[in-house]
Each structure stands twice: as C-alpha cells, then as structure tokens.
C-alpha cells in the first residue's frame, strides 16, 4: 500500500521531512513543553517511571492493537490506554488497560475530551 509523502516539520524554520506533524527532535520539545506548562501537576505524578514500566510490560504482553484486532486487522500497538481514565478513578491495573495503535488511541482520546479537546 502506498504511503503518504513526507511533509516538512511544522516547527518554525525546521527543514526536516516527517510523517507526523513534527520531526522527532521537535516532537520531543513540544511534548516536554506540554508536560511542563499545560499538563496538570497531579497528572504528571501519575505518569512517572512506574507507569513507564507497567506500560512497557503490558505492551510486550499485548503487542497488537485491541480495536484493530476486533476488525481483523493486525496492527502493532504503540500506546497503552486506560479504559477508565485515572482522573475518573481508574488504576494502572491490567484489567483497566488496552493496547492501541496511535490512530485508535488518538480517536478515543479526542472523543473523551483529552489533550486536544479541553
């Protein structure tokens, strides 16, 4: 299946071509800025080193996107989603987690009013 052509990074003055909105270097900068200035400090505490370990262990055990799998597609999982968000009383318990590809995770997050829909 053909891929979309790469496009220039959206960061001002960056000539790099990328598949996403920003090149890898600037995506890290944008994420760091978001975490530092826009994300709630209580949320930052919930997503520390412990979460990274849980996430890595879960994605190793569940390497395919759960939503795509239901439709018969085999898509590698890139993110781990909390079924019940931590802000609503959810936990890092394995029964509350779901491995997803980035498009599926973005769709769910947008629908639930996450980072992009304040």
Provide a short characterization of the protein structure.
With 118 residues, the protein is mainly alpha-helical. The protein has five helices and four strands.
What can you see in these coordinates?
This protein has helices at 24-38, 41-46, 49-61, 66-70, 102-112; strands at 7-8, 17-18, 79-82, 97-100. It is mainly α. Strand 1 (7-8) and strand 2 (17-18) form a beta hairpin. The mean pLDDT is 85.
Topology readout:
Blueprint: E1 7-8, E2 17-18, H1 24-38, H2 41-46, H3 49-61, H4 66-70, E3 79-82, E4 97-100, H5 102-112
Antiparallel strand pairs: 1-2, 3-4
Write down the secondary-structure element order.
Answer: EEHHHHEEH
**Helical content band:** 40-55%
* Cα end-to-end separation: 35 Å
Number of strands: 4
Q: How does the helix and strand content classify structurally?
A: mainly alpha
Q: Please tally the helical runs, counting DSSP H or I stretches of 4 or more residues.
A: 5
Radius of gyration: 16 Å
Strand order of the largest sheet: 1-2
- Indicate the mean pLDDT: 85
Pick out its properties.
118 residues, mainly alpha, 2 domains, two-stranded antiparallel ribbon, two-stranded antiparallel sheet, 5 helices, 4 strands, 10% strand
